[in-house]
Design brief:
Two copies of one chain form a homodimer.
Chain A: H1 2-14, H2 29-42, E1 56-59, H3 73-88, H4 96-102, H5 106-111, H6 113-124, H7 130-143, H8 159-170, E2 174-182, H9 183-187, H10 190-194, E3 201-213, E4 216-227, H11 233-241, E5 248-251, H12 257-264, E6 271-278, E7 285-286, H13 297-301, E8 308-311, H14 312-315
Parallel strand pairs in A: 1-2, 1-5, 2-3, 5-6, 6-8
Antiparallel strand pairs in A: 3-4, 6-7
Amino acid sequence: MRHCLLALVATTIAWPALADPMPSWRDTDTKARIVAFVDAVTDPASPDHVAPADRIAVFDNDGTLWAEKPVYFQLLYALDRLQKMAADDPSILTTDALKAAAAGDMQALAATGEHGLLEVIGATHSGMSVDAFIADAADWLATATHPGTGLRYAQMTYAPMIELLGYLRDEGFATYIVSGGGVHFIRAFSQDAYGIPPEQVIGSVGESAYELVDGVPTLVKKPGIAFIDDKEGKPVGIDRGIGKRPILAVGNSDGDFQMLEWTTASAGARLGVLIHHTDADRAFAYDRDSAVGSLARGLDEGPDRGWVIVDMKADWDRVWTGE
Amino acid sequence: MRHCLLALVATTIAWPALADPMPSWRDTDTKARIVAFVDAVTDPASPDHVAPADRIAVFDNDGTLWAEKPVYFQLLYALDRLQKMAADDPSILTTDALKAAAAGDMQALAATGEHGLLEVIGATHSGMSVDAFIADAADWLATATHPGTGLRYAQMTYAPMIELLGYLRDEGFATYIVSGGGVHFIRAFSQDAYGIPPEQVIGSVGESAYELVDGVPTLVKKPGIAFIDDKEGKPVGIDRGIGKRPILAVGNSDGDFQMLEWTTASAGARLGVLIHHTDADRAFAYDRDSAVGSLARGLDEGPDRGWVIVDMKADWDRVWTGE
């Protein structure tokens, strides 16, 4: 009896591989190339076979696993949080950037440049414990809605990408997020939204310190950036956090270029994938001239490098997880 | 037939749990407390049961998983490497610390203090690719021998600790190294020596950069320290690299105090373990007054905190993996 149960469990586990693992992808050359790559590295008889321990797949987050318009969702969170904080204590608005952000004046905030954005992040992402920050971000994600779609942000993850993550894990891949976003913000939703646990989230890192707060051991978030996981920083973040070279990298902007370059330049079957935002009707259409998620070099050089360019409008049968 | 095979596999997988998983540990209260903790967090019927995904165990390396006398083995590697480099090009010896190190004058090197040691690390741990560094460290570990025992360094891992790592993994734990040593140096041997893959090694991090070297994408090690994973740094390193609070922490020096404090201060069954080096005959005996691996606060406060203090001489039936 025990043996039958074990066999039943094993059969159940084996079952999903028989169905189409990515029903939200249309049957285009794009989907075929991704599946062919996975088959090549997982078939023990294939010359390109890769051992499960080395099946490392890395995914950008903003614009790749969920949307990034009108601006990065983490910034929208920071603005909401700053406005709440300012309502309690207006004296925290000590700079032009903070005043503009609290007033919701995006043009004035943009005029303060990257330095202004870092002031907003610093003011809203420090001074509390890591646990309290993650809980606050999770609360925001559970209630806040997107200004354009009215969906909650976790509903604006891309259904085809969630399917790709699950398909890869079923095929023995470890799926990592490698994002320019903050590691603590992403960890507030990555397990529920993507099935990616905290230890497989690599992102930008704010300063933090281990302190006894009223005698209680606490990790406290501090102002200041310890590491920016973007562009040339992504291969560095992958090395520090994984220590293995990925065989599959998926991104959507030129901030992912070096991650795809690092991944696909090594020997053996390797795949780089870029999500091209071509779908103005169901989502957003942008590339070269976008202030957020600009994609130019990837479009120019990607095809010659053998990278797959996903045409969101043509290749995806469905976009939002939450629609 | 397929069902029978599956059942056979399942039975085989279950088998090792029936044998003593830690034969190199004598049947003392120390071993009993460790096993009782593992039983409490893995028994589904236990009030202290912890889901497999949260069974995070963190281990210091130097003095906990392998020896650290006469000095950290990574420093011995750095000295050998510096002497090789100086033989090729004596002009690299630009400071008193580098000259003393290349001459093997430990007293003169010690006189230059921590700054001198960082000069030696900087000179020997930069200017090559990450891959080349790891290959060089692996070559050294395969050939160099310890001045006292004549054993190769990987033979000076502790057999009882290797058994504990395997026992924990068999019980569904993820076993991480959280070391003040350099992450790239540890990755040169952690898989072979401990069964711990690169992505589960957290350590101090030197600066590095992603560059095209003769057109080839390369991660290059640079001088300078990006993060020191010691003392208060260990909980920070755990948060950055794992994002979950461990339930078991094992160390041997006061550099591990905060890691054990962070681990054992949370709710539920938690265990802190300190290896006390009491075995002058088979290994080394040292604690409070040792320049390397000093253990004082842990001995003073550990017992009241419920931490297990391992008496190496009394609790271990065997020490070196390589003996």
